[in-house]
Write a structure and sequence with these properties.
This protein is of the alpha+beta class. It folds into two domains: 216 residues, Rhopdopsin 7-helix transmembrane proteins, CATH 1.20.1070; 125 residues, Beta-Lactamase, CATH 3.30.450.60. Helices cover 65% and strands 8% of the residues. It is built from twelve helices and five strands. It has a five-stranded antiparallel β-sheet. Strand 1 and strand 2 form a beta hairpin. The chain is elongated.
Length: 361
């Protein structure tokens, strides 16, 4: 029986690789379970599926590197490296992992980037791979010319990603962004090593990948719902009422929202009673469940904002609070002398368009 002898200096690397295998396998299972749950929006379908694939490929990549570094025979490795098969496998895994990270960010940001980042990175990877396989000498700094713009774009992209998420979700996204940042650092360094025909991952980058896997997985898995990123597709109708229950302003986010107006009208008497109790007892009414619709409440000194939505979303509460702050700045000082002219609240339209990110007509 042939025994594999591992040097003491290699034990730490093997321990890190084992931890990475456990972490990636665990998150693969967790995100698979999230993906299998009943979904109602694209992000609920695509993001868990992409995260599952991310950790599956991280698991496969870690397994491949662990086998080649600790258990594979030198002859087999030399054959793989000489035939460039090993190079193609490593580059392929790096491109897939980075592509999935960019795809997830594009899904969350909700902007029509036309997959620019993904196409850019794939184009860069193909260019470098062809040049390397063709033994064409790379100009000094050529890879940096391609990598640095991508790094800058991804940093800006992640900054926007963080800015778009409020409150509790933002705290989770900080973990995700830290994880993304560590992934990018480790991936860029690995690309540099690959271009130098060095396929071993040094200890510090094993630590980075392990920490990135934990932060990204934990951050995403503890987000209450991926529908928070689809909030714009879940809102139906906005109403702003005064403390007496009179509707001062409304805005439909979907065409033909008559049903939502009927919903509001049929509930107005009950809501007036509830609002009276809220004002007297200073209690906070956050949501009323109407089956397939939720009425989300936020209040300020002179107004109550109500959003009819498909779900009770934290991001909508945050945006309603932001709207009411601006309402108080614009109209708070004059509410005591207001004579009933609803046109007085017309300046709310651009405020609503900005806060709820409406596209110009």
């Amino acid at each position: 029986m042939q025994y594999i002898i591992i040097e003491p200096s290699e034990k730490l690397g093997l321990m890190l690789a084992t931890a990475q295998l456990i972490v990636t396998f665990l998150f693969s299972i967790l995100f698979y379970q999230e993906w299998k749950k009943q979904k109602r929006s694209e992000n609920e379908q695509y993001i868990p599926f992409a995260l599952m694939l991310l950790y599956v490929f991280l698991f496969l990549g870690t397994a491949m590197m662990t086998y080649s570094n600790f258990f594979a025979e030198e002859t087999i490795l030399n054959i793989l490296k000489h035939t460039r098969i090993y190079f193609i496998l490593v580059v392929g895994l790096v491109v897939i992992v980075t592509g999935i990270l960019v795809f997830i960010a594009e899904r969350i940001i909700r902007r029509n980037t036309r997959h620019f980042f993904l196409i850019y990175f794939i184009g860069m990877a193909i260019t470098l791979t062809i040049l390397r396989l063709s033994n064409i000498p790379l100009l000094r700094g050529f890879n940096l010319i391609l990598l640095i713009p991508l790094a800058i774009l991804i940093v800006l992209f992640l900054h926007t990603l963080l800015w778009k998420t409020p409150g509790k979700i933002r705290k989770k996204m900080i973990l995700v962004i830290l994880g993304f940042g560590l992934f990018i650092m480790a991936i860029f360094q690995e690309i540099w090593f690959i271009l130098q025909n060095q396929f071993e991952i040094v200890s510090i980058f094993k630590n980075l990948i392990l920490l990135a896997s934990i932060l990204t997985g934990y951050g995403f898995y503890t987000i209450p719902s991926f529908t928070e990123f689809d909030w714009n597709e879940k809102i139906r109708h906005l109403y702003v009422l005064n403390t007496d229950g009179l509707c001062l302003f409304q805005h439909p986010f979907r065409e033909g929202s008559v049903a939502d107006e009927d919903l509001l009208g049929g509930s107005l008497v009950a809501m007036q009673s509830l609002m009276g109790e809220m004002i007297q007892s200073e209690r906070s009414l956050e949501v009323i469940d109407h089956g397939d619709a939720k009425m989300i409440f936020e209040r300020s000194q002179n107004a109550i904002a109500i959003m009819v939505a498909d779900e009770n979303l934290y991001v909508v509460h945050h945006k309603l609070k932001e709207l009411l702050k601006e309402f108080e700045v614009l109209f708070g000082p004059t509410m005591n002398v207001w004579q009933g002219n609803l046109n007085h609240f017309y300046p709310l339209r651009p405020v609503v368009a900005r806060i709820f990110e409406l596209k110009p007509d």
